[in-house]
């Protein structure tokens, strides 16, 4: 038992040494996963959606990296009972579906040799579509959703460096806090209020 423990510690030390000798390089990756979006205020309940895209990881100096990304992201929320109205008609089963092209720029600090990153950075979201879905599938354009959304992103990322391979596995967990009101309050198809997107996301990816 004692010899087994010594052997394990010895192998772990060798693995750490090899990891530290691994040359830093620019990494290109793809990622995809699940997010739960919540809109501020009392009008909406949360809604699950897809997130996925590409990134580039640049070593800067020491343990610091910069990682710009481009992600397709599904956001929105389910209207609470009687919150959605067209004229005098109120609908009980409705949801707001928004698709964004989200572009965060993350500043990362890596805890070596375990390859655990903490990151924070700004994000700009470019609206691709915004629609209100009512009942079994009637869709109405949500005209008062602005074309851009400003937010901040922070979270953790773990990189599993595969031995003798050019591919790394990446696990990413992040939270996005909306900084700006995404509704301009000029259309009756959505309540005229101040709303911000807040999103919890988990992604799995590979990096070359």
From TrEMBL:
InterPro entries linked to this entry: Beta-barrel_OMP_2
Pfam families per record: OMP_b-brl_2
Outer membrane protein beta-barrel domain segment(s): 18-182
Name of the featured protein: Outer membrane protein beta-barrel domain-containing protein
Organism from which the protein derives: Parapedobacter defluvii
């Amino acid at each position: 038992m004692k010899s087994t423990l010594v052997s394990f510690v010895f192998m772990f030390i060798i693995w750490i040494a090899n990891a530290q000798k691994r040359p830093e390089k620019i990494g290109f990756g793809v990622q995809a996963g699940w997010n739960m979006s919540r809109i501020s205020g009392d009008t909406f309940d949360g809604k699950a959606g897809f997130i996925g895209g590409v990134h580039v990881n640049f070593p800067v100096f020491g343990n610091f990296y910069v990682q710009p990304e481009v992600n397709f992201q599904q956001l929105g929320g389910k209207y609470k009972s009687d919150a959605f109205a067209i004229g005098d008609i109120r609908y009980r089963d409705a949801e707001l579906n928004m698709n964004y092209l989200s572009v965060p720029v993350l500043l990362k600090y890596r805890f070596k040799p375990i390859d655990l990153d903490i990151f924070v950075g700004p994000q700009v979201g470019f609206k691709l579509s915004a629609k209100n879905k009512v009942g079994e599938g009637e869709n109405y354009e949500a005209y008062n959703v602005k074309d851009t959304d400003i937010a901040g992103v922070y979270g953790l990322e773990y990189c599993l460096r595969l031995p003798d391979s050019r591919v790394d596995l990446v696990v990413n967990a992040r939270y996005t806090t909306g900084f700006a009101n995404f509704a301009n309050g000029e259309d009756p198809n959505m309540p005229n209020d101040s709303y911000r997107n807040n999103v919890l996301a988990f992604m799995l990816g590979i990096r070359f």
